[in-house]
Amino acid sequence: MDQPARTLVVFHAHPDDEALLTAGTMARAAAAGHRVVLVVATDGALGQADESTFGTKGDALAATRSRELAASARALGVARTVELGHADSGSGPDVWPDPPGGRRFVRVPVDEAAEAVSQILVEEQADVLTTYDPHGGYGHRDHVHVHEVGARAAELARERGVDVRVLWATVPRDLICRAIDLVARVYRFPPEFDRSSFDRAFSASAEITHRVPVRRFAAAKRASMRAHASQASAAGGDDRTLGMLVRIPRPLYDLVFGREWFVDPDAPPGTTATDVFEGLA
């Protein structure tokens, strides 16, 4: 029996985060006739980029990344994209001063940011909301804030009659470490890539509740990654991780990115679902 049409809201911190963690699931849901809504918290203006091609950090890069986000959304079949417009908080040791007329996302109170997201959940009558795990995957401060804001937004939506399921988009850390080691036999990772950071990032395999097969949508995921061209290279044109990933040959790419993973914090131990909508009433 076919599922009824559902609504999936994916909440990410920066333009390009959707490409890496949830693009296959988004494309799969859209292809099945479900509504997919992409919500992005920040403008990505502090992302690393080749300034000679994409402009310096700030408004110029933010405009570029907004266009790239729109291209990614088209490749994945997204029905609606919402850019909340908060300023990128950056990944360095210190949070930059707020830009004129704006605030770094991490300085926006949880309740305030969650109110905007909850309104989207209610408008869309969302069935599933994806965020990040409590550590924000690899620990980026904006990702941690997305987790906190998303959890509160779901609470507010439930108070308003929308019983939304929350899933944490993640990766089994043991699997990603093996995949990185496999890719490293063929490609040299860029200097900023810290292999050791993945030994403590994301989620243990035992915590995963949803293992979603997305190999059929590898082409869409690859197109989503390619859309974020500004994040493929750094100053001087040196490769960044995203640039390296989009050049992996298709058979290996399909193997590495043929599945996406989620944790349902409310699911009973031992849950092993293969679809984000599985088990909904």
UniProtKB/TrEMBL annotation:
Stored Gene3D superfamilies: LmbE-like (3.40.50.10320)
GO terms (BP aspect): glycoside metabolic process
Keyword Cytoplasm: no
One Pfam family here: PIG-L
Organismal lineage: Bacteria, Bacillati, Actinomycetota, Actinomycetes, Micrococcales
Organism: Janibacter indicus
UniProt keyword list: Zinc
Record-linked SUPFAM superfamilies: LmbE-like
Protein name in the entry: GlcNAc-PI de-N-acetylase
rRNA-binding as UniProt keyword: no
PANTHER family: 1D-MYO-INOSITOL 2-ACETAMIDO-2-DEOXY-ALPHA-D-GLUCOPYRANOSIDE DEACETYLASE (PTHR12993:SF26), N-ACETYLGLUCOSAMINYL-PHOSPHATIDYLINOSITOL DE-N-ACETYLASE-RELATED (PTHR12993)
Domain of life of the native organism: Bacteria
Gene Ontology molecular function terms on file: hydrolase activity, acting on carbon-nitrogen (but not peptide) bonds, in linear amides
InterPro entries xrefs: GlcNAc_PI_deacetylase-related (IPR003737), LmbE-like_dom_sf (IPR024078)
